């Protein structure tokens, strides 16, 4: 397979090992692809053990190359979903089991994230805010919606969440979310 489609796919989103042909081409042409993106001020990051690869803005040594990727601040709801699911993935990975994918139901996500959303007089409105955060997390590739099973909406927590919410920053993010939730409760 020609590496050019891989380059375009990386510019669009992360690549996962589930796409066997694309993944094999990425690994085979890794040095070529990495060199190509270095010229654009980007860095190819490959997590072979977790089966994903993505691009990130390289540390700017050459001020002549403008930023290709914007630094978007995560919406608070997405940050809450991300932190809670990252913690859940960390717990999942610490246990020995045959399953390699973490699957959670929508109801589980709602239950885990609800304490971090401000109390609302209207429970339906609060659920819609959480649902919007889940949908945005799906758009960002943090989770992937799976077919409905036994009447429950299910999501796979994508391993790219490890790159977006590294363990080193997880505790600080969790404390910020708790402080924010406490501040809202006291108002």
Give your account of this protein's structure.
The protein has a three-stranded antiparallel beta sheet with strand order 1-3-2. It has a three-stranded antiparallel beta sheet with strand order 4-6-5. The protein is 51% helix and 17% strand. The protein has 187 residues and is α+β, with helices and mostly antiparallel strands. It starts with a helix and ends with a helix. The chain has helices spanning 4-12, 20-28, 30-38, 76-94, 106-113, 123-139, 161-164, 167-186, and strands at residues 15-16, 42-47, 52-57, 102-105, 143-149, 152-157. α4 packs across α6, α4 packs across α8 and α5 packs across α6. The model has no long low-confidence stretch (mean pLDDT 86). The longest helix is centred in the C-terminal third of the chain and has 20 residues, at 167-186.
Instruction: Please give the number of β-strands.
Output: 6
What is the strand content? 15-25%
Give average pLDDT, whole number.
86
> By helix and strand content, what is the structural category?
alpha+beta
Q: Kindly state the percentage of residues in helix.
A: 40-55%
Order of helices and strands: HEHHEEHEHHEEHH
N→C terminal distance: 58 Å
Low-confidence stretches: none
Any idea what the radius of gyration is? 19 Å
**Cross-sheet strand order for the largest sheet:** 1-3-2
Quick one: biggest sheet? 3 strands, antiparallel
Shape: globular
Number of helices: 8
